[in-house]
Amino acid sequence: MTSAFKFFAVVGFCAITGLGLNACSSSDGVTQGDIDAFKASYSSSLAGLSTQAVLTGSALQDLFDAKFLDSGFSRADIVAALNGEASAIQSAGGYSSVPQVTLANASVTDCVGTTQGDLICTLSGTLSNQDADVTSVQFTTQLRMADGKLRLYGDQLTAFN
Question: Is domain 13-22+29-152 classified as CATH 3.30.460?
Answer without folding.
Answer: no
